[in-house]
Amino acid sequence: MNIKTFIATLGIASLIGFQSCRDDFDYDPISSELRYSKDTVSVDTVYNFSKSETYLLKIYNPENDDRVIPKIYLTRGDKSYFNINVDGKAGTTFENVPIRKKDSLFIFVEVNAKEAPLNPLYDDEINFETTNSSKKIKLLSWIEKAKIHPKDATISTANWNVNEAQVIDGNLTVTNDLTIDKGSKIYFKKGATLTIGNNAKFTVNGALNEEVKFRSARHDNKYDSIPDQWNKIELLPNSTSKINYAKIIGADTGLHVNNSKLNISNTKIVNNQSYGILATNATIIGYNLVMNNSNLATLAIEYGGSYEFYHSTFANYFNFSTAVGPAYSLFLSNENNDKNVSALTKATFGNCIFYNERTPNAILLDKKDGAAFNYLFDTNIIHNADTSTLNVTTAPNFLASITLDPMFENTNYYANKLSLKNESPAKGKGKLDFAQQFPFDYNGQPRGTTPTIGAFQ
């Protein structure tokens, strides 16, 4: 039963059983202190001109007799963005509300936002008056100014900034040029996709502590931890993208780089259902990437292409209820789903970490005959328990591999702290040549002459 049906049913029952909110009951006004399920009702972030989910507040009558609550009302009255439903009846002011002995009363709370206020923290109060006292229950919500893109919309050129969030419903296609400024927020409804079209340009100009955030349109904190809340960002053939300081969280596939070019740096891609990055015959240069938790692979490369990744952390501790895939850190192939092959002209990984839990080896090399398969792993930490399949300490094109646990701080979904403990075997073991090309870590700390393997010094 959904919440609206439940409210309607409750309203009918109240009318039959109590004739709710009338002023002709024989019950005496309550004199004891009412008890409340909470002192504050915090409503999820709401966009301008949209409604929130419904939240529940319970009121308890501690007395041994049926009573009425003399008055319940909102401080802001009819002008409030908050709506309340008391025992099945909507309104802003209620008098002589019956409440049975040793029983509870349900109040449903939601926000129906209008124009976003200058101060996005919006509050009101539910006031309860009894014969002997009064009580205020605080109502809080964050009303965010946002542009809501309709389903299957198309834009040519746009510059998104921190002053207005973007909400994507369905598929939004960019045909020419999209630039996103630091601190911007892009929210996706269930199943939504941002598509950078053929030959289009995509630029994400985030900064440390002002990352551009791509995530679910649902704002409860838990939705930063749950995968598959939206579909993906897809970079179509011949598009050109540059991403710096972004957070991509909770999609099916964080980035699908499809026969296109991408420069990506200082970016976290975590808690995505299938892939963090899926690259199909793409050209990618990346460094200071922090990736974790994907059911199939954190980084999947198929149908060849050209790739360089340095000082990046490819972890995979995916253990969600939908965990049925291999959860590789890296899947590397020169074949596509149609069994066609294309040359893997370059796949270079330097000073990177590849570590997972579900499979014995974090890396799967899927080489098919008929096309080139060129790769080089130079000075990396690699989970490699099954040496009969691949031995990264002796195999060609694997140089200075370390197979010890990197000792991350906290790999859980809600944390994704992939910085390293002081005793980590990655500390000071990076190759200096790579560190000199990328002298600062994700946090802007200099790597110096004793660089640490991975994204964090």
From TrEMBL:
InterPro entries: Pectin_lyase_fold/virulence (IPR011050). It comes from Empedobacter tilapiae. SUPFAM superfamilies: Pectin lyase-like. It comes from the Bacteria. This is Right-handed parallel beta-helix repeat-containing protein.
